[in-house]
Every structure is written in C-alpha cells, then in structure tokens.
Amino acid sequence: MNLLFFLPSLVYASDAFPFKLISFSKQNTISAKQVAIGYWRIALLSSIIATTCSGFIRIEISFPQVQSSEQTYFSCITAHGILFIFLVIVPIGQGYLNWWFPGQCGKWDFSLPRINIGSMIGTEISLFLIIGSWLPGGWSCGWTMYPPLSSIQEGNSIDMIISGIHLIGVFGGLSSTNTLITFKQIEYNQTYKELSLFIWSQCVTAILFIGTIPSLALALLGILCDRSLSGSWFDPSGGGDPVSYQILFWFFGHPEVYVVILPSFGVISTLLESQSSLYGREGMIASISCLGILGYLVYGHHMFTVDLEMEVKLLFSSGSMAIAIPTGIKVYSWILSIITKKENLKSFSVPIICFIFTFVGGGLTGIMLSSATADILFHDTYFVIAHFHQVMAISSFLAFSCGIQLLGYKSHSGYLILFTIGTLILFFPLYYAGIIGTPRRIPSMTIESQPFMFLGLIGYFLSISGTIGIMIHL
C-alpha cells in the first residue's frame, strides 16, 4: 500500500479526488506526481475548514443580531488565517512543484525522493495536529499570535499549534532544500536564461523560505518558553519586549507573502511559455530575483504603528514602493504576451485576465499602504484585510486555476468569472469600510459599515458558488 494514503486515506477514499494516480518513475514506487496529489488533498481539506470559518465571520459581522461568543469569533479568525496561509495556498504551490519541477530539470524525481515523501506526510501530521488543537477550545490570539494574548491563553491549544507550525517549518525547509539540490543537479544543458520561469520562481521561493523560517521558529519558541517555563522573552514585566516578537515574526511574515505568490507567478509564466507567447524573458527573470531580494528588506512596513525612528520608516517605505517596479515588469510582460499572441491563448485568456485584474487591483492599494502616514491610518482597518486577501489569496487561486488547464483539465470560464466577480463584491466594499475607519477583528460593526459588510456577504456566497462550479466541471 502506497505511503501516500497513510494519512489522506483517513479523510478521502482513493477515488474521491479528480486526479488519477500516475506513476512518474519506472519503478513501482511513490512518484513526485503522487506526492503532488497528496499536497492537493491537504489543501482541499484545509480550504473547506478555512472557508467555513470565513463564512461564519462574514455572517457574524453582517448581522448585528446574530452574535456568538467572542472566543468563537476570534477562534474562527485565527483558524482561517493559519490554515489558508500555511496549509492551503502553500500546499497548492507544493503540488505544482512536485508535478512539474523534476521533469523541467530533466529528472524522473527529486534528488532526495524519500525526503520529498516525508515532507508531505509531515505536513499532513501538522494539519491534523493543528485541527485537533483547535477543536476543543479554539485560539483567541489571532493568526499572528502576538504576545501577550498568545502567552496568557489558558490550555494547551496554543502549545499544540506552535508545535504544528514548527513541523510545517521543518518539513517545508527539507522540501525547499530538496528543491535546490535537485536544481543543482539539473541534467539539461541550458544556460540560466534558458531555464523555465517556473524553475526560477520555485528556486527563489525555496531560498526565501529557508532564509526566514528560523526567525519564525525562534519567535514561537520564545512564546513557548514564556508559557511553559515562566520565561519573559516577550513579557515587559520581566524585562522582555513584545516588539521583538513582531520583528522576528514579520522578518518571516513578509517573505512568506512571496513564498505564497511566486509559485503562482511561475504557473502563469509556464502557461505562456507553453504557448510560445511569453514576452520579455530576461526582464521576468530579473523581476523574480528582485522580488526575492526586496522581500527580505521590507518587513518593517508591517510595523509602522510601532514607535520606529523616522529614518527607519522612510527606509522601509521606500523599499515597499520599490517592489512595485519588478511587479510592474511582470504584469507588463503578461499583458503584452496576451496582446501579441492572443490567438495562441484563446482558451487561457479568461483565467489570465481575471488573475491580472484582481492582482493589479489589490496591488495598487499596496502602494498606498507603503506610505507610513497612510498605513498608520489604515493599519487596523478592513482596508488592509481587503488588500492582502486580493493580492495573496485570490490572485494565487486564479493563477493556480490557469495551471489546472495545463494538467489536462478545463476550468469553466463562466464559473471563473463568477468567482472573480464574487471576490470583487466581497473585498471592494471592505476598502470603503476601511476608509471610514471600520476596525478589523471586531465582531460588532457600526451602523455606517453595515451596508459594506452585507455586500461582502453576498460576494462571499457568489465566490463560493463559482468555486463549487469549477470543482464540479473539472
């Protein structure tokens, strides 16, 4: 019995997933493509739970008369964030990594196939560990787990979730190392400029993850010591500093945005390469490299509300604005590729256009937030919520939906358009809610913000309907 079904078989029957198991190697062993299916199953289970939590949040803030306990509300917010970031979007990218990367490197499988299989199984273990710790009492500290909220919550749920995230970090680091080793042993006689942009995206992603995950591990270890060993790493009463947690967390947190989004960029570029219609290859390679470098240097824009020096704010603000340059190069290349080779991209045009429209719409608001003055006003409002959901989550899903067609499945254009319209109706009103000062993480909304929240609820149901339609028509 394949090891692939060791944990997923507890949740799914072997024929419950639309992709059939295809052996990628000559031997009767688990191949990289089978591992890809395992990652996609992890993402499917996590997305069902996270989307359900999102629906509960939307209903809670849309109807003042429907109020649950604050513990339940904050638990849903925490579960929604942690599952989507660590166990939905990243595993989808890992699936595409396993499906395409070895073949594009001229190999049957990764250089360390057992490490690859173990990373997938370890991610599954962390998924069940996190879900199991959430169900009994929930988490009320938010997905960022800022102290002192994460330090004072009673019970073992926070300890378990920290253990689960540590597992994700360990096995994600092993997978990233395996990716770089496989790339180093590439068997094609090509120059770096001739390599697929998917390979470039995944290698930069691996470097970002390896370089930043120790920072998150150290931050979570400090919380664990404060909780279990009466430490004071982040407790001001014992000489600790909560701001040091934010520095450690966001040194990982902002590069994690590119760990999430760069694989989806690679999928879009691979689609255009497959149709011989990619424009500006050298510029695309340079932009991917610049995003990888700048991703390390702008984490401070998440901390503009902290008492930073003016020079430090100016530095991080300038770096955040500079990220728009390589991103703009990529968008320009994609648009020009569509215009110049539109006949070759007739069947792919709808998902690509939906992706570009959503990504650019959310990215323009990121330029606004790169200003320290504007960020102080918008930081704790729904403006930020709408921004990072559009840029990181929705754009990634639309890009990965383009990759579905390269796997031999046709995504229904009508349902993709319905999903895109639903997400726009969901998040565009939240920008206006943020402009009028509606605070996030608050279960009770003001009368002025109620129309925006109700529109968002309508958009939520439209996007869910589009998602279900896409899954049915695969």
Offer a few descriptive terms.
single chain; 474 residues; mainly alpha
In short:
With 474 residues, this protein is mostly helical.
Total number of beta strands? 0
What number is the mean pLDDT?
Answer: 85
Give the helix level as a range of percent.
Answer: over 70%
Order of SSEs, N→C? HHHHHHHHHHHHHHH
Terminal CA distance reads 27 Å
Shape: globular
Global structural class: mainly alpha
Identify low-pLDDT runs: 1-28
Strand percentage: under 5%
With helices defined by DSSP (H or I, 4 residues minimum), what is the helix count? 15
Cα radius of gyration in angstroms: 22 Å
What is the makeup of the main sheet? none
Description:
The protein has helices at 32-62, 70-104, 113-137, 149-152, 157-184, 197-228, 242-274, 281-297, 310-322, 324-340, 349-369, 372-378, 382-406, 413-435, 450-472. The chain is globular. It has a domain at 193-341. By secondary structure, the protein is an all-alpha fold.
Spell out the blueprint of helices and strands.
Elements: H1 32-62, H2 70-104, H3 113-137, H4 149-152, H5 157-184, H6 197-228, H7 242-274, H8 281-297, H9 310-322, H10 324-340, H11 349-369, H12 372-378, H13 382-406, H14 413-435, H15 450-472
Helix pairs in contact: 1-2, 1-3, 1-15, 2-3, 2-7, 2-13, 3-5, 5-6, 6-7, 6-8, 7-8, 7-13, 8-10, 10-11, 11-13, 11-14, 13-14, 14-15
